Amino acid sequence: MRQEHEPKAWLGLAAGALGAAGLLALVLAASRAPGAENWLPSGPDFFKKGLVTHVVFSFQVWLLAMLAALAARVAPAATRAGALIPLAAASLGCVLLLVPTLAGWGRASLNNYVPVLIHPLFYAGLGLVAAGVAAVAIRPLMVWRSLDTVGFAIACAGLTLVAALVCFGLAAADPGLGDDSVTANERLFWGGGHILQFVNAQLAMIGWLVAAGRAFGRAPPFPGLIRLCFAALALAAWIGPVLEATHASDDLALRQAFTSLFHWVLPAPPAMVMMIAVWPLIVRGPKVGDVVAGRALLLSLAVFGLGGLAGFALGEGDTRTPSHYHAMIGGVNLALMGLIHLWLLPLAPSRWLTAQYWLYGGGQLLHAAGFYLAGLAGVARKTAGAAQGLDSVVKLAAMAIVGIGGAIAVVGGVIFVVGLMARLGAQPSQRADIVDSH
Predict the structure, then answer these.
(1) How far is CA 209 from CA 81, 175, 273, 277, in A?
(2) Distance CA 93, CA 130 (A)
(3) Which of 8, 27, 4 is nearest to 16 (CA)?
(4) Smallest Cα–Cα separation from 381: which of 321, 330, 324?
(5) Distance of CA 393 to CAs 128, 377, 389, Å?
(6) Which pLDDT tens digit goes with each residue over 34-93?
(7) Which pTM was predicted?
(8) Residue 263 burial (CB count, 10 A)
(9) In terms of Cα–Cα distance, which of 153, 141, 139, 171 is closest to 241?
């Protein structure tokens, strides 16, 4: 693999992660059929195990591979080995994540942020994916002074990822972590999992900057303020390792400290970049040059913004919580879709391309709104069937909206993944970059 092909190779890994997650989702759906446990690797336990791996591929692997693709785009490897070894490590990690899942090994731990199968191969897989991505993500840090604003933002995301990995390492080294249990994994991934949300927010912000540049025909204004927002998130993320180093993993104060860091530090920089991204709309009116970029930007902002607002008014154990995180990750995904179509693997506008954004973005809006309404009506999270207690018209209607929105979003997601896989084998069209050069 030549160095110039490295971003495309990481895109291939990202697409493969989404493809694997999609196939697992189909198997999970089929596993609910009567008698399905007779042909599944671990019988009735497969549902939870498959769900864990589905979540890891559709969130952690997909998002981290996208960060690596962006980092490789602005800071290419100096040698062929430097490009190949990190990708090979992450690819092997993905295989190791699948092996215990398909073999029926290990126990499912549905802990927050990074659910796991309690098996050495699964942990090794996570470690290899993280190491491979980190080896690429730190490259922009070495040349940050020469990078434009988008490149600087990618460097900050890499620095934030390193902080998350340090948190995981410090938690794992704590002798008070406990045995191989759900509680131990909750403690292990709590701190670093919070910092990974800083990375996800930065990925969305990068997508907004690129989409805004395309949509309005010029780099977003206030480049110094943009850099300040990304640097603030990256530096704040390093409070995480300090917290891990000064608290025992079972200390309730540590848990609350990460929650406070998340609530009080994370919202402001994305909100500021949101305003900067749409500033041309405010001062010049709705004049959008690139329609695809405009839709990617505005739908991502709408879905992400809905999730952010929901996060300030969560309930206790009801479906307002999944409303929040489904919308947040949906907004990030829309921003990444835009980054792929506009910057990493440029594609000429088409009806199929436009449909992806309307279907996925509109579906996610309905899905999240339905969850929030259901939570207001008292529907408990992590329940299904009769356990949901859908005993009113409001609850039934809200959950119907959840289902309809989810189905629409899935259609948009499938179109995106299939289109991306098809494009990875084709030559990207020539399209001038409109990214920040400040």
Answers:
(1) 32, 43, 8, 6
(2) 9
(3) 8
(4) 321
(5) 48, 10, 11
(6) 777 778 887 888 989 999 999 999 999 999 999 999 999 999 999 999 999 999 999 999
(7) 0.93
(8) 11
(9) 171
